[in-house]
């Protein structure tokens, strides 16, 4: 069991990757991957599993990965979350040796159905109950306004250990976000999130689903070429790695594991 901040620190001299998966991912495909991600990030969809018990899909997947001695970053949303369930969950995570959490509000979050009105409240509750056992990450929007950046600073101030960015497609966007964050006093690792894609359809589908921004130049180039997505992704990773101190990249896979691995493997 290792904290993500330690994993990143120990691999800062060479490129490393982590992969986000949903609980519906094929276990067989996970087990046969020919490269080992630094950790697996498991998404959490409270409206689907309703936080019914401790046998919900994201926890079952976390247990499986830990049984294989793989490192896990478990998403946890404020959505539909009650204090009693949180206490049970934190106890279970300690039992199965999961020490990394990614705290978010959740999809279509309704504060009336949660004991935690903000991510900051949830982070504080985790710290109050478990001290420094958990390494906590929060989301960062690279092109956010100053108000959102200040909110991110507050999350770090109350106990977040690292930031994981939404996907971006141009190196200068990450570089600018690093500079703005440093100026705002955010002094934790900021992990770049990358959507590894091959086709125009994959790119536009992700952009529409996640509401991320991508320049018209990239959209036009991707649509006009046969399949430049792999090249765009690889060049993005190489440019960020060469231009900053960060050598770790988090890959949004949408469970396309084989495809994502084929894109990043030549960089290792």
Automatic annotation (TrEMBL):
Keywords, ordered alphabetically: FAD, Flavoprotein, Oxidoreductase
Metabolic or biological pathway: One-carbon metabolism; tetrahydrofolate interconversion
Keyword Flavoprotein tagged: yes
Highest taxon in the source lineage: Eukaryota
Cofactor(s) listed in the protein's UniProt record: FAD
Alphabetized Gene3D superfamilies for the sequence: 3.20.20.220
Keyword Oxidoreductase: yes
InterPro entries to which the protein is assigned, alphabetical: FAD-linked_oxidoreductase-like, Mehydrof_redctse-like
Database matches in Pfam families: MTHFR
Family statement: Belongs to the methylenetetrahydrofolate reductase family.
Protein name: Methylenetetrahydrofolate reductase (NAD(P)H)
The organism of origin for this protein: Loxostege sticticalis (Beet webworm moth)
Classification lineage: Eukaryota, Metazoa, Ecdysozoa, Arthropoda, Hexapoda
């Amino acid at each position: 069991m290792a904290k993500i901040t330690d994993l990143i620190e120990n691999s800062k001299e060479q490129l490393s990757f982590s992969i986000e998966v949903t609980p519906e991912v094929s276990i067989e495909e996970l087990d046969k991957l020919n490269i080992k991600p630094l950790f697996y990030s498991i998404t959490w969809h409270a409206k689907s599993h309703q936080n019914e018990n401790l046998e919900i899909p994201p926890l079952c997947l976390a247990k499986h990965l830990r049984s294989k001695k793989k490192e896990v970053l478990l998403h946890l949303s404020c959505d539909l979350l009650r204090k009693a369930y949180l206490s049970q969950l934190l106890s279970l995570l300690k039992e199965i040796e999961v020490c990394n959490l990614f705290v978010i509000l959740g999809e279509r979050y309704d504060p009336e159905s949660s004991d935690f009105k903000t991510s900051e409240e949830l982070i504080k509750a985790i710290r109050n109950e478990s001290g420094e056992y958990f390494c906590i990450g929060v989301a960062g929007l690279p092109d956010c306004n100053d108000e959102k950046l200040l909110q991110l600073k507050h999350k770090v101030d109350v106990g977040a250990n690292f930031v994981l960015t939404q996907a971006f497609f141009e190196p200068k966007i990450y570089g600018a976000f690093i500079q703005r964050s440093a100026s705002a006093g955010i002094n934790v690792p900021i992990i770049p999130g990358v959507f590894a894609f091959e086709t125009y359809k994959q790119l536009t589908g992700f952009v529409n689903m996640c509401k991320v921004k991508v320049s018209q130049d990239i959209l036009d180039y991707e649509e006009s070429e046969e399949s430049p997505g792999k090249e765009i992704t690889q060049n993005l990773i190489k440019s960020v790695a060469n231009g900053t101190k960060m050598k770790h990249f988090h890959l949004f896979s949408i469970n396309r594991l084989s495809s994502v691995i084929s894109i990043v493997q030549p960089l290792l």
